[in-house]
Amino acid sequence: MPDTTFSDQQLIDTFLPQILENEAKGVLQDLLAQPILAMQFLFFSEEATQKAIKHVAGIFDECYRSGHLKVAMSHENACLYGYALLFVHPDPNVPRYCHKIFVFPEFRGHGIGSQILSALIEDPRDTSLLCGYDLIDFYENAGLEQKGAFTAPGKQQGFALTQGMYADLVVMGTRGANVAAGVFMLNDDDVKALLAYA
């Protein structure tokens, strides 16, 4: 069974560019799926797309370098199988937010995602995540509790363009976690910066 690493800094740094680029591509796909943004992103040139990927990866990298983003990886023999991204608030009373658990397609179906999730749940620090209502049973069976519906910040807080990305989600968390966990979202200024590459 592969190892799940939280603390092997050299190994994490080796895979970090690949992880952040993969996440940036995922964010762009999520933005493309938003009706308000789809047409604007749909006709991006390859050059504009690469610039946007680099921009979003840079946001993640800045969070990582400042200590607000932590990475857990599933790996074996220098092969990366999957990872989790956790946003950590400076206040230790605020639960970590698991932004994503991702397993590369060729390694899916072998329990790697469940192994990463178990490592997160077994950690003494509280952890929360967002999921669709269809995944509540899965996460409850894994040991998380439903904490309530997620309410995304709105237009007044500068998140009008990404509202649809966070609709109909529920907060799941470990026993001590609460709804106050910070969630990573691109604000309107971030999205406008990406659109400027077109």
UniProtKB/TrEMBL annotation:
This is GNAT family N-acetyltransferase. InterPro entries: Acyl_CoA_acyltransferase (IPR016181), GNAT_dom (IPR000182). Residues 28-177 form the N-acetyltransferase domain. SUPFAM superfamilies: Acyl-CoA N-acyltransferases (Nat).
